[in-house]
Amino acid sequence: MLHNHFPLEVSHLVKTYALKNGVRVEAVRDVSFYMKPGEVFGLLGPNGAGKTSIISIITTLEKATSGSARVFGEDVDSNPYFTKKQMGVVHQEIVNTGFFTVNEILKFQSGYYGIRNNNERIDYLLEKLGLKDHREKNVKQLSGGMRRRLMIAKALVHSPKVLLLDEPTAGVDVHLRESLWQFVTELKSEGISILLTTHYLEEAEKLCERVGIMNKGKIVFMGSTQEAIAQYSTKKVYIEFNSGEAAVYTETASAGLVEILAHHKIQFTDIKNIKIEEGRLEEAFSKMVNT
Ligand SMILES: Nc1ncnc2c1ncn2[C@@H]1O[C@H](COP(=O)(O)OP(=O)(O)O)[C@@H](O)[C@H]1O
Ligand SMILES: [Mg+2]
């Protein structure tokens, strides 16, 4: 059964919150997407786009107004025991879980999934996430970055096949951010499918082979990261001529060099130096959400 379905498939998801004053917030408006096995899929969008609402529905913290979420073909509401076992989730908000130690928290979490002796897995995760020397500390004694890593370890104790990371690097320093990217790459190579929400476009460009870009509750782009860049961004071509003159041309990211030179009636033999700055996801994203 596991092999015939996508690790995650969300279809026609709608989430409308009703506020106390009767105002309705249409947080998610008919969103559909799927994740392929072993890929890092980026769910991107500015604050308030609806990303966390989608994660909350997938993990059954919130109920969808309509539409469905399926994990390996099983509906999250009809079969939560199965779907939760397949998934690990790191929520955007870090929960401050009182006075238990890192070690205890990971043992409890293993027990929650019915895994009795999980020491090997726990040791592995503590090592990978740089928490080995902090295992006897309680949460209050951890820095923000350590708490974030603990949440990731906690999400992985039961060796899930799907990992949901909601803004895992928000408020995290550059060093930790890079080591988390490294870790995500390692998990991917182990075959885990990863859903990453982020508003760091550099991160998405580095890690995600496909992206769904959201704005105001709707998907405005769905496809490969390279397609997004090629369709919606520009590249810059810097040319230094033998004459000593220089020029910079801004071109669509998909344009080839031969085509660009022909268009500007530039002869190869007149060029002394050429530098190409490829298009970036950040620019494509800005165009799509008009920020
Ligand atoms: N529990 C809630 N009650 C009412 N409105 C909410 C609730 N959670 C989120 N929202 C609203 O839904 C919209 C989408 O929020 P969210 O899913 O958190 O977006 P994102 O994660 O992309 O920043 C926002 O307008 C937000 O204020
Ligand atoms: Mg969010």
**Percent strand:** 25-35%
- Identify the overall geometry: globular
CATH superfamily of the largest domain: P-loop containing nucleotide triphosphate hydrolases
**Could you tell me which ligands this complex binds, including any ions or cofactors?**
adenosine-5'-diphosphate, magnesium ion
* Rg calculated over all Cα atoms: 23 Å
Helix content: 25-40%
Low-confidence stretches: none
- Structural domains: how many: 2
Let me know the number of strands: 13
- Element string (H = helix, E = strand): EEEHEEHEHHHEHEHEEHEEHEH
Structure description:
- With 291 residues, the chain is of the alpha/beta class.
- It has 2 domains: 8-229, Rossmann fold, CATH 3.40.50.300; 233-289.
- The protein is 33% helix and 30% strand.
- The protein has 10 helices and 13 strands.
- The protein has helices at 51-58, 80-86, 102-112, 119-128, 144-156, 174-189, 201-207, 225-232, 257-263, 281-289; strands at 8-18, 24-35, 40-44, 66-71, 74-75, 87-90, 162-166, 193-198, 210-215, 218-224, 234-241, 246-252, 271-277.
- It has a 6-stranded mixed β-sheet with strand order 6-7-8-3-9-10, sandwiched between helices.
- A hairpin with a 2-residue loop joins strand 4 and strand 5 (74-75).
- It is globular and about 75 Å long.
- The relative contact order is 0.14.
- The structure holds adenosine-5'-diphosphate and magnesium ion.
- The site of adenosine-5'-diphosphate (ADP) has 11 residues, from strand 2 and helix 1.
